[in-house]
Each structure stands twice: as C-alpha cells, then as structure tokens.
Amino acid sequence: MDTTGDTLTPASAHGSRWESVQPWLTLACRVGLAAVLITAAVTKFPPALSVQAVEAYDLFPVEIARLIGYTLPLFELALAVLLLAGLATRYSGAVGALLMVIFIAGIVSAMVRGLNIDCGCFGGGGQVEPGETTYGVSIARDVAFAAMGAFIAVWPRSPLAIDRVIGLFR
Amino acid sequence: MGSEARKRSRERIREIREKEKRAAKRNKTLLVLGAAALVVVAIVGIGYLVLNADRGDGYEGALAPQVLQEDGSVVMAQEGAQAPVVEVYADYQCPACRQFELLNGDVLKENAAEGRAIVQYRPVSIFAQRPEPISGNSLRAGVAARAAADHDRFVEFNDLLFQNQPTEGREGFTPDELKEWFAQTDPSEQQQEQFDRRVDEESAVVEEFTGDYLPALSQDAAEQIGQDTLNTMVLADLMTWGADNGHDPSFLEGTYTGQIIEATGNAYTRYSGENAFRGTPSVYVNGELLDNDTAMTARGLNEAIASAEPGEVDSAPLGDGGGAE
Which of A31, A61, B200, B208 has its CA 20 to 30 A from that of A92? Predict the structure, then answer.
C-alpha cells in the first residue's frame, strides 16, 4: 500500500516536479495541522471549561462528557506530536482527518437541533446568544483541516520524519 | 535445464524477494504504528492523571456560618475571620458556573471553614434577558436560592441547584422541583411552608417578567432606540428606560426577582477596568477578578486565596436575619 513513492514514474516533467514538490507540501501540512491541534489543545485549558464546551453539544451523559473534556485536548496534543515527529505519518494524517470529520458531524448536529452554541474548537464553547453562532465558519475551517490530514494520508512521503529514518515512505 | 525452467526459477526468486520486501514493509508499518500508539497512550494517560490531580479532595466537614446580606448575597465565613474576601458571581443556568461549583465548591467551603477565606456568594441572573425557558429557569433558581438563604440553607441549596441544572434551552428548575430540593436540606415544617409559599409567589412574578413585561419592553425599545443600541444595554439600563416609557416595573418591588435583577445590574457597575464584570462565573479576590486558569483550577484558586491579604466585605448583613421587606 505504501508504494506511492516508487510507483510514480517520472515520465513527464510534470510528474518529476510533483515528486520534488509533494514532500514539502506534506511537510507543510504536517506542521500546519500540528500547529492547529496544539492551539486547539492549549486553548481548551482549563479542563473544567472544556467539559462545559462538550456538555453544550448535549450529546453525551455527564461522565462521558467529562472524560471527553479532559482527554480530547490531550489527544489533540498527542496527534500533533506524531505529525511533527513524522511517526506513522500516513495514519496520523488519516486520524487527523477523521477527527475533523467527527468535529464537523458534531457541529452539524448542533446546528440541525437548533442549539445556539460556540463550537468550543479553540477554547470557549457553551451557549451564545441566538444569532451569534458561527457554525459555517467553524465547519469551513474544519473542512480545510480535514483536507490537510487527507493530503498527509495520501502522500505521506516527506522530509524530517522518523518514518523515513526507519525506511517507510521514502 | 531448459530456458523455460530457468525463467520459472528466476520468477520464483523474484516472487520470494517481493514477498520479503512486503513483509519487511509490513513490519516497519507495524513498528511505527505501535510506537505511535505508545506515544498517544503515554501523552493522554499521563496528562489525564496530571489534570485529574487538580481536583480538590472534597470537603465533608461542617460549613462556616452563613450570613445573609442586605443585597441578597450570602457571606460564608468564620466569625471575625481575618481573611481575603472571595466573591463568587454565578447564574444557576450557566453551565460554566456549574463546572466551577463542581470543581471548586468544596475548595471554597474548606477555606471558609478553616478561616482562610471570607466567601461571598453573589447569585445573579445574566440570562434574565434570554428567551424562555433560559430566562425563567435562571430567575426561578435565583429567587429560590434567596428564599433558602432566609432559612440559613443557602450553601446547601446552592449545591443542589447546580447538581440539578437543566440543560440550557430545556424547561427546568420548576417550582415543584425547587420545593423538593429544599426539603432535602432538612428544614422544619414551618420553614418548608414559608419557602414553598415564597417560591410560588416569586414564580408568578418571574412569569410576568419573562412572559409579559420584558417582551413588551424589548419590542418597544427595539422600535424606539434601535436593536443595535438595545443589544449593548444591560437589563438594568433597559428597565430604567422602560420606567420612563410606559413600562412600569413596580411589580418587581420588594420581590426576590426584583432583587436578583438589581444585584445583576450592580455587578456590572461595581468594578471597573480590567476587573469589570463581564459574565459568569466571575470570581474576585479582594475585588480583583481572577482569570479562568486561576478560578477554574483547584490549585489556582487555592493559591490565589493563600497569597491574598485579609479583606473587608463591602455589604451589610440583613438586620432581622431573614424575610424580605
């Protein structure tokens, strides 16, 4: 499955240019998505407020909401570390994209149920005045982040990665 | 050996090599996946332990005496305590206030009981202007807490309200529920009766406020001074405008509903600059607003209290020890 690098035949000039540019694009996505995830994790502190942001979605029982509120920022942080280190790059990118898809589903569900909440994506969260919701912006943002994760998953080959040292995605 | 056979053998060798290559790649993939899983488990696991260590140990001991103040707030402190004043502004319908209470309610009780803090609970209703049922929930809970304070049961009732906070946007804090929770604070029969009566009276006032008075006032104000200006006005200012424009607020006089609305308005004017009151929960130590990282962690709040000088409560105790005028 991880044959992207060796099967691409540099038949055309276009192909070879892509091959030299793509690793740097992937690196940019790794760093960019990691920066997003770190920002998201740090701004969710303190966890008491993060729990409140999760509860506002009104989707989980109290104890589960509490667990998510405490562990989600930590998971975001861990994922950022993996992306920066380039460890299991393809899978980290895929999980990052999947996480964004889950976030989008959560926001859409809040929107559909007519809740007036802040997504709590970067801290904050909880109720806002009716008419002050920003679901559209939040979803668009998450779509962009999901695209970055997908790019990494499809083209994991990139410089400055532990995977490369081990001999993956060369 | 014919050329056909040589070809087959070359083919086989190539297949074996391919297979080995694939196996090696699979092993490497499993290796990085395992390492990645370890990193995730380590960060999430250790982080969770660290964050959880911030929870207080809980406090089950006796509460410091509670003294109801003229403005409807409640001071919980040991008599004659020389300690910093910790003011807590909360709206019973505010989810972040519930998180504060769950996390730091016991920290406040313990500090007060041990004479290290003078805790002043200042219930407010920042949601009084929100659409129903948020506004009614917020106000009913606030007046019920005030009624519980008449019977020296504010802190206990305050806990019960937060434990039973309805999800925002759902009907909750009904008169029947409020009475039932008050019964859990072990009142005398007479106290329960007085509480029940008060809650019924105030619920009617709340209903008039959220159902008739405020919608009419808001509509008029929107038409006459514009929605944009209206959005920047706090409720107290809007009501002052209303009083001069045919919206008589006298039905609120002498009610706990009126008192909590007034207390909320006063919160906005009590502090200035960086310490200005902007919403709930807000925690002040000697008049200084704590940031979220301080107020919403047990360690932060404990340290803020421990490092502050003794302060003075700026309200006066209610003379007769209970009952509204």
Answer: A61
B43 contacts A78? CB cut-off 8 A:
yes
Q: Which amino acid, A60? A: F
Closest CA to B201 of B151, B144, B265: B144
CA angle in degrees (0–180, nearest 5) for A11-A13-A17: 110
CB B130 within 8 A of CB B96: no
Residue B86 makes CB contacts below 8 A (sequence gap 6+) with B108, B111, B117, B118, B119, B120, B283, B284, B285, B305
- B-contacting residues in A 26-55 (Cβ below 8 Å): 45-49, 51-52, 55
pLDDT tens, position by position, B30-49:
999 999 999 999 999 999 99
Complete DSSP assignment for B18-29: HHHHHHHHHHHH
Residue B211 is classified by DSSP as I
| Minimum Cα–Cα distance from A73: chain B residue | B44
Q: Residue A10 is which amino acid? A: P
Here the ipTM equals: 0.88
Distance from C-alpha of A32 to C-alpha of A36, rounded to nearest angstrom: 6
With a cut of 50, list the residues of chain B below it in pLDDT.
321-325
A88 DSSP assignment: S
**Beta-strand (E) ranges in B33-133?**
66-68, 74-76, 85-90, 118-123
Instruction: Give A140 to chain B, closest Cα distance, Å.
Output: 26
Q: What angle do CA B180, B185, B190 make, to 5 degrees?
A: 80
